[in-house]
Design goal:
CATH architecture: Alpha-Beta Barrel
Catalytic activity: 1-(2-carboxyphenylamino)-1-deoxy-D-ribulose 5-phosphate + H(+) = (1S,2R)-1-C-(indol-3-yl)glycerol 3-phosphate + CO2 + H2O
Number of strands: 10
GO molecular function: indole-3-glycerol-phosphate synthase activity
Strand order of the largest sheet: 1-4-5-6-7-8-9-10
Structural class: alpha/beta
Number of domains: 1
Distance between the termini: 50 Å
Keywords: Amino-acid biosynthesis, Aromatic amino acid biosynthesis, Decarboxylase, Lyase, Tryptophan biosynthesis
InterPro entries: Aldolase_TIM (IPR013785), Indole-3-glycerol_P_synth (IPR045186), Indole-3-glycerol_P_synth_dom (IPR013798), Indole-3-GlycerolPSynthase_CS (IPR001468), RibuloseP-bd_barrel (IPR011060)
EC number: 4.1.1.48
Helix content: 40-55%
Bound molecules: the ligand O=C(O)c1ccccc1NCC(=O)[C@H](O)[C@H](O)COP(=O)(O)O
CATH topology: TIM Barrel
């Protein structure tokens, strides 16, 4: 394949942790695409089974007045260290589905989150929920790889990409009938994300410099999301009262990982969030 055309849009403004992750991701893509060329990964993506409709599932939850819970399967993280051990993605997926989650999010990044493509495959095979590949997308090759492993949606982190890169990744995802979740941390990123076609706008409450979460980020940004988009509050949501706090500013969809992963009974914990309103 040609040299990956990863260019960090404004490297000096990318927070340190994210910059490190992206640099490693670039190396990972280079190695993986050397082993499986773009033409081959695209062939695998285009012959994979039909994607599940991630966007419609969340729209339907909102239309029904339900909490749209994207329940995350995450073994470890830079901020939380090792979060869950033992870790069984298939069982967790079944537990989340039983609790009434709308979608799943599965970490596939290995170096920072101890994730793996096999976690996504196992989780998706264990239920009928649409699945987000939670990873740092920096190159078209990864979008094809996501579909080839079964993912139904990709994450586009606006802080990591130029507008042109984000549009390119979105175009490929749409050509594969995948959903796109555009993630923002501030007003400038939100403005840029609204230039994409996707309806899913994730407001991440995690400050990428400190890795601390603060729900005030969603309180500031969610009200600025236009009515034709679906705001999703991400990170740092721990209990039903946090779910109500997010709904009060207009986010009935939430993405929750660590607080669920730390519970012995994830079904009960996820059901509590789903039934919070
Ligand atoms: O979780 C981290 O430590 C982290 C560090 C650097 C970049 C991203 C990170 N997390 C990714 C996520 O967005 C979360 O996994 C997701 O929103 C769920 O958050 P939480 O419920 O707080 O686990």
């Amino acid at each position: 394949m040609n040299a990956p055309h990863l260019i960090l849009s404004e490297p000096q403004t990318v927070p340190d942790t994210l910059a490190r992750i992206l640099a490693d991701k670039y190396e990972e893509v280079r190695a993986r695409s050397a082993a499986t060329p773009l033409s081959e990964i695209e062939r695998q993506a285009r012959t994979a089974d039909r994607p599940r409709d991630f966007v419609t599932a969340l729209c339907q939850a909102v239309a029904d007045g339900r909490v749209g819970l994207i329940a995350e399967i995450k073994r470890a993280s830079p901020s939380g260290g090792l979060i869950r051990d033992p870790f069984e993605p298939a069982t967790l997926a079944e537990d989340y589905a039983r609790a009434g989650a709308t979608c799943l999010s599965v970490l596939t990044d290995a170096p920072y989150f101890q994730g793996h493509a096999e976690h996504l495959k196992a989780a998706r095979a264990a239920c009928t929920l649409p699945v987000l590949r939670k990873d740092f997308m920096v190159h078209p090759w990864q979008v094809f790889e996501a579909r080839a492993m079964g993912a139904d949606c990709i994450l586009i982190i606006m802080a990591a990409l130029s507008d042109q890169q984000a549009e390119e990744l979105e175009d490929i995802a749409r050509s594969l009938d995948m959903g796109v979740l555009a993630e923002v941390h501030d007003r400038a990123e939100l403005e840029r994300a609204l230039g994409l076609q996707t309806r899913l706008i994730g407001v991440n409450n995690r400050n990428l410099k400190t890795l601390q979460t603060d729900l005030a980020t969603s309180e500031e940004l969610v009200p600025l999301v236009p009515a034709d988009r679906i705001p999703i509050a991400e990170s740092g949501i721990r209990n039903p009262s946090d779910v109500r706090r997010m709904a009060d500013v207009g986010a009935r969809c939430i993405l929750v990982g660590e607080s669920l992963m730390r519970q012995p009974d994830v079904t009960a914990a996820a059901a509590e969030l789903v039934q919070a309103l």
